[in-house]
Amino acid sequence: MPVDFKFENPFMRLWLLLHQTYNSISKCEDNVFSKYGITTEQHAVLMAIHHIQGPVTPTEVGQWLDRNTNSISLIVERMVKLGLMRNLLRI
C-alpha cells in the first residue's frame, strides 16, 4: 500500500493521489495481461488497431494512444518477432 503523505498544498496531494492511482492501475493491468503473455503496451496497441477504421499506420496508433510513432513501431516489431501478430500496419 502506498505511503499516505501529508501535504499542506492540495494540488500536491491531488498530484500524488493521481500518480498513486495510475501506478495501481498499471500494476493491475500488468498482472492481468501477463496471464495472456502480453504486456500492457502490447494490449494497448492491439486495442488501437482493433478500433481504428481501415488500414492502420503507426502514426494513427500513436495518436490514439498518445505515444510517439517510434515507440509504436518498436512495440509492433517486438510483437511480430514474438509471433503475436503479423505486421499489419501500413508503414
Could you characterize the architecture of this molecule?
The chain folds into 2 domains: 8-37; 38-91, Arc Repressor Mutant, subunit A (Orthogonal Bundle), CATH 1.10.10. It has 4 helices and no strands. It has helices at 10-34, 40-51, 58-65, 69-81.
Rounded to an integer in angstroms, the radius of gyration calculated over CA atoms is 17 Å
CATH topology of the largest domain: Arc Repressor Mutant, subunit A
Helix fraction, binned, reads 55-70%
SSE-based structural type: mainly alpha
Largest sheet: none
Q: Which regions contain 5 or more consecutive residues with pLDDT less than 50?
A: none
Strand percentage lies at under 5%
Output the helix-strand order.
HHHH
Helix segment tally: 4
CATH architecture classification name of the largest domain: Orthogonal Bundle
The count of β-strands is 0
The chain-level mean pLDDT equals: 88
Question: Outline, from the CA principal axes?
Answer: elongated
CATH structural class of the largest domain: Mainly Alpha
Count of domain modules: 2
State the end-to-end CA separation.
Answer: 43 Å
How would you summarize the topology of this molecule?
Elements: H1 10-34, H2 40-51, H3 58-65, H4 69-81
Helix pairs in contact: 3-4
Keywords for this entry:
91 residues; mainly alpha; Arc Repressor Mutant, subunit A; 2 domains; 4 helices
Brief description of this entry?
The protein is an all-alpha fold.
